[in-house]
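Database export, one record per block. Field names are fixed; values are copied verbatim from the stored entry.
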Amino acid sequence: MNLQIERVGLSNQISSLESNLSQYQSRINSLPKLKEEEREIQRRLEAAQATYETLLTKLKEIEAVGNQNIVNARIIEEALVPKRPSLDTKIILLLLINAVSGLVLFIASIAVLEKLDPSLKNVKSIQKILPYSLLATFPNFKTKQNSREPDLDSNKIVIPVLDNPTSPISEVYRMLQANLDFIDSTQKSNVIVISSSVAQEGKSTIAANLAAVFAESKKKVLLIDADVRNPSQHHAWELTNQLGLSNAIVGKANLATAIEIIQPNLHILTSGVTPPNPVTLLKSQAMVNLIEQASENYDYVVIDAPPILMAADALILGKLANGILMVSRPGVIDANSLVKTRDLLEQSGQNVLGLVVNGIILKNESDSYFHFTENYASENTKKLKVLSKKAVELK
């Protein structure tokens, strides 16, 4: 029976991969045409810029002539009145037409380039596809050098909850913790899988900081790096990855030995050695037993899982946990990928706890989810203060 279930699961994965391959092949086939359109637009844009520079030069020449002052001048002979205008109106009209054409081409170029970018740009566009409770939104901004307050453009995991606990961004993580507690106050969701649709959406950063926030509230927390294909938590916490999750599952290490203690309330289980077949490992009874043991010994278990469209790992782990917390990032995720993610979540019957939108671009948010200003400072560094946050309605 188990082999039949695994066979069906592998068949579904093969179908999904073949569908993805077909779509990517279609995208690849359309690239030459898009490149040709881009070159044509670039050529038109260069022509428009040349026209603009010509007009600007003529304007400067006219202004220079008008600004010249004639000194010690006297009238030698009265000027004759011309019978027809010396300035041809056709030339002026032609120049105006060229200028307007250049402006139209410039605007059209911007519009075409926007259409060529398939990524979603704001929170609303993501929520239209993933209609889950919005639990938190994190802004996209860079911080000062040598600071671990989030630079969401970087691939490195940053942990402001520990490094700068009084910062506004740390308060947003505490708001996320509170919203998770409000989802179901009668039944705690103490085993949480955190995943995203694709890579580079910041799910590992969210997992690390959420675990730190839980530990901050005097709860015993275990953070598990289950992204065995591309682990990152051991780098964030400056740990070795010789012993970890994979070693504990196959019985090569005791769970208590593999766990690293960061603080009295915060423990980390790194991914361990990358196994040849991670899916088989995560579907094993040993993995089920490990999650059950962790759930009994810890108040919260936070699992950093791979992206859903990259592997089946997150969906497998989601069925072992109380639910999945989805992370999505504007400018990285596109509509097609998000639709596939939603379909996979629904087909596998996942309990989605909510949605976190990471790295939002403030100018793209018409509803002004955040308003930041630098209006107060500490002794050596200015902090960004949150003046307003949009209320979040939980389902």
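Remark 1: The CA atoms of residues 57 and 63 lie 10 Å apart.
Remark 2: The mean pLDDT is 82.
End of record.
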